[in-house]
Every structure is written in structure tokens, then in C-alpha cells.
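Troubleshooting entry. The earlier prediction with zinc ion gave an output that would not parse, so I re-checked the input for stray whitespace and re-submitted. Clean input:
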Amino acid sequence: MGDHFFGRFPALRMRRLRQLPQVRRLVAEVTISPKNLILPLFVRPGKGIREPITSMPGHCQLSPDQLAEEAREAQKLGLGGILLFGIPEYKDPRGSSALREHGIIPQAIAACKEAASELLVITDLCFCEYTDHGHCGVLGSIGRSGQWTVDNDATLAELGHQAVVHARAGSDVIAPSGMMDGMVRTIRVALDAEGFSHVPILSYAAKYASSLYGPFRLAAECAPQFGDRRGYQMDPASDVGQALREVALDLEEGADMIMVKPALPYLDIIRVVRDHFPGVPIAAYQVSGEYSMLKAAAGNGWLEEKAVVVELLTCIRRAGATMIISYWAKEAASFL
Ligand code: PBG
Ligand code: ZN
């Protein structure tokens, strides 16, 4: 007997559990199902509109009636939900069209609820699609430099107002994405005061200033007209501890679920957050750049799209994401 049985080669052979597909399946831990997937959709005013988004093949800007079709399909596929982004009829410095009672998001929610009453409707809460300068809130100048940036506290009141507009229109979950300090607390207080204490908040807690948002900004027509978002979104080079502080703060302020964004290059953040905050549902946002990169490679025949998508989603789940916001949600649900 001797050495042969001491838990190493040749007695130990890791390949044994890989040989049969049935055994591989038996021991696999990580699962993805349609209920874990959330589909982002872009809605704009009008009727019968399906304006293809060139930077994101397969996605369109949709008018509410067309959005309804997507919602119906999403419900049929058993998706976890949809995440709505509005493109308004007009933009101004304060983003006032985001506060209209019958603005684009309220119209969109109504269309989805009518077409697919069981489908979870999450609404992104920010101002960048509604401001003419493309920043995520009201501008102000700070300090002696007089540099223009988003005025945090002036933006908070507006965010509370926008959250109530979404909740009144029937949004099931409010997802603030602007990375303003104190935004979760302000939104929670505003919702509770108006009788919406039952509406959960999914906070974009660890949102990085990523160059991978490029295709989205074309899709949602929300690229900043000057400067960038590094003054409010997180620095990719910051220590993971900063992400933990962001998450801890948002949870203290009343966030029910938190998001890490982007997903693939930030799997370390997902894992650390998961380990530090057991029991907190984590959403990972597989962003537009992650989508477009693979679409381009697949279009050239360089990568096999379906296989890569399943692998990416699996790895994001393995890192610790409870749910994944993905532009592939529909396709993935149909082939999973
Ligand atoms: C707006 C917002 C952005 C994304 C989601 N909400 C863009 C940004 O912050 O510039 C990016 C989503 C994507 O790239 O898929 N606050
Ligand atoms: Zn924004």
C-alpha cells in the first residue's frame, strides 16, 4: 500500500469527477436561472418606435407600446425583472422632465403593468438622461476653483421627488444610480413620507467611473457634455475597502439590495461585498461595454457568443452575485 493511498496522485485523480457529464452536473455548485436575470430596456416617447441602438446590436430605443411587447416576453421567459431607462421628450439644466407625473417613465411603467402584470419593474433613478449637460444632477460650482460639478445636496431633494414620481406610477423597485452621498437616505425618507414604505431600494452602491459605459451613453443619449463622472463615481484604482464603505453606508441609509457595477472586471468587489455582508442581495450589472465587446467579437466569428455568455454569467454568479442585470437576459433565459 504505502504512499499510493496518501491522498495524492496516483490515488487521487481530480479528473475522475470530470469524466462523466452526469457527475459534472451532480457536483456543479453554481446555477443561473431566468429569475436571476434582469433585462435593461430603453424607453422613449412615441408610438411604434423601435430605433436600433447601433452601439448595442440587438437592442432598441422603444416607445411604450413596443416596450409592452418586450415586457410580455420577459414575463413569459420568467425573468427576474426589467430595469427601465427613460429618454425624455426634452432636456433642461435641472432635468425637470424626470419629475413629470406623466413623463416617460410613468408612461413606460403603465404600459408594462398592463401587458405583463406579474413582471417586476425596476426603475433607474438618475438625472443624466434628463439634463441638457448630461450630468447626474443639478450643477453648482465648488470651492475657490469655481469648478462646475454636480451639487450633491441640491440634487438630493430632486432625487427624493423623482423617486416618489416613480413609486406613484407603480415602480416595484427604485434603483438610484447617481452616486450622490446621502441619496439612499433621502429617497427612503421621501418614499416613506408619501406612503411608499413598502417599495424597496436597489442602490448602485459600488458604481465605478468606467469607460465601459460608452455604448450605454449613446443608447440613453446621456453622455456628459463636458468633463466626466469621476467626481462622483468611484475610481477603479481605489482600494476595495472604499467599496465596502459605500455598501455599508447605503445599507445604513436603508438600501434593501446593493449593486456592483460593472461586473466582469469587478468580480473581486462582488466577492468581497458578499463575504462582508452575508444576507444582502447583490446585483451585478454586466454593462453595455461588456455586451458590445463580445457582440463585436462574435460578429467577427472570433468568439462563440452563446458559450461565452453562459460562462460569463456563471462566473459572475460564482463571485457572489444574487442577480445579474444583463443585456443578454432574454437570450440567456431562452437557452439556459
Ligand atoms: C446613468 C447610468 C449609466 C449606466 C447605468 N445608469 C451611465 C453612466 O453612469 O454614465 C451604465 C449602464 C451600462 O453601461 O450598461 N447614471
Ligand atoms: Zn446618471
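This one parsed fine. The mean pLDDT is 96.
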